[in-house]
Amino acid sequence: MDTADQARVVRQEPSTDFSRQNESTVRKVASPTRRSPLIVAVALFYILLWGSAFIATKVGVSYSPPLTFLAIRFLVAALLMALMACAWRVPWPRGWAAWGRLSLFGLLNCTLYLGCNYEALRSLSAGMGSIIAATNPLLLTLVAPFVLRERLTWWRVLGLLLGFGGVLFVMGARLNGNGQLDTVGGMLISFIGVIGLVAATLFYKRYPPREHAFVVNTVQLGAAGLALLIPALLFEHPEQFTLNAPLIESFLYLVLVISIGASLLWFWLLRRGEASVVSAYYFLTPIAGLALAALLLGEPFTLRDALGLVAVAAGIALINRPVRARD
Asked: pTM of the full predicted structure?
């Protein structure tokens, strides 16, 4: 997926494909203070969109070569967002260094992460893909003490054990009883993508952009789309396309609803100082992805999946738990 949603969670950042404003990247997890029901509803809807992108992606790569599909999606979304940025007179990056930094972020955040994701979903169920993507905050928490010198509390250690244990538990069940939908190769490719996403987040936190988040997202999508054209032209062929209604619908959904719509939703939260509330509900993302995959695609959902999902959600919730002095 994109991000659609979003630098990602180490503890305070939600995982999404969209870039964050500089000040939002250092904001703490939402405090337990009372929040407007509208804010909570928008945050939950944002999480639902993030989970739904796996469904649209799975449909799209069933009828199209994945890299070509993703490259066209990125380029169309970048073009539309560039037109909107010009209409709103949002300033563009200044100097080659700024353009290069944002492009490199796009290569990690979109080309590597989503390129692997799209390729993996050819031999991976949408539900399993959403669970593996949810390991992003777990991996970030694991490397943050060494790279960002963030504290690894006992709560986070417990969250890591629960989260990774839940993922392995679900993977074992899927490989034993669902080999046609989920393969080892698909899982490995998906994990490589998550590593790219972790690298993108660390890069974003080390070199936070000063540009408007809308422009950051436009540049990263454009750079990623151009980069993906090369392997798409070399390794994929037009005869692999099956132009039909599901392909068109999935493409329009990913471009308009995920790449643009979810981005505007994020900026709406950001302007109200409530973007960090998404982190408080991030643990619901794999639940939304697996539930939607079962509901819309008819993918199997067993008791073992449910138990593993609870462990993953609990692990992410513990990792997102605000750090207190006594921890």
From this structure: 0.81
48, two tokens = 């639902």
State pLDDT tens for residues 169-181: 888 877 776 556 7
The rounded distance, in Å, linking the Cα atoms of 7 and 25 is: 8
**Residue whose pair of structure tokens reads 């739904």 in the numeric block:** 52
Predicted local confidence at residue 210, as pLDDT: 87
Cα diameter, the chain: 61
- Residue 188 to residue 25: CA distance in whole angstroms: 29
* Alpha-carbon span 221 to 49, nearest angstrom: 18
- Phi and psi of 87, rounded to 5°? -65, -35
d(CA 165, CA 315): 9
User: CA 113 to CA 125: how far, in whole Å?
Assistant: 17
What letter represents residue 172's amino acid?
G
How many Å apart are CA 244 and CA 241, to the nearest integer? Answer: 9
Select from 253, 262, 190 the least CA-distant residue to 42: 262
Place of tokens 């959902």: 301
**Residue 57 and residue 66: Cα distance in Å, rounded?**
9
